[in-house]
Amino acid sequence: xxxxxLYLNACSASFQTGRTDLSQFxxxxxTNDSILWTRGYMYH
Length: 44
Fold this sequence. Notes:
Elements: H1 2-17
């Protein structure tokens, strides 16, 4: 629930200031090297 409230507050602040960005966070347990850092492979 706290993450959802953080998201909504961030959206509100972004719209008030006119600045919006898109970020993605991936949380895993331990080391997970199978997840690529970028999606550059999709554009080649």
